[in-house]
Amino acid sequence: MTTPPVxxxxxxxxxPPEALDDDQPVGFLMGPLAPLEVPATTRVSTALHRLxxxxxxxxxxxxxxxxxxxxxxxxxxxxxxxxxxxARQLDTVGALATRVPTVAPTVRRSRxxxxxxxxxxxxxxxxxxxxxxxxxxxxxxxxxVAERFxxx
Length: 152
Prior knowledge:
It is a single chain. Helix 3 (44-54) runs antiparallel to helix 4. The protein has a 4-stranded mixed β-sheet with strand order 1-2-3-4. By secondary structure, the chain is an alpha/beta fold. It has helices at 8-14, 17-20, 44-54, 72-80, 109-119, 138-151, and strands at 37-39, 58-62, 68-71, 98-99, 102-103, 123-128, 131-137. Residues 98-146 form the CBS domain. Pfam families: CBS. This is CBS domain-containing protein.
């Protein structure tokens, strides 16, 4: 007895319907929060090294209060503002980080894109049960749209 070949129809049935939706919930697209998290006391120079090592554009800053984020551009602007000053490398990211919009994992990709554009942020924090559980950045969102068209 031979096993039937896997077809698109049989493989599609194994995935939850939401994963195959053209406008997926961000819970299917989000990345892990942990590798991007840094304490608010992290020095600017350390944050830049971490960004490079991770190959990302943002770090999530945890401290007292809401979750915030800092981008590579923010860090570089800080270093060069008013002329390059090496001492600025010792400043902490907590002073530079800004609040980031949050969304539930059930929010659809299209709504997340609208929020990014309206708020001028390239990063959203995904929150479930009042706790941050992941991140969605503009690159991941754009990649998910491109994948949709590649499958057609």
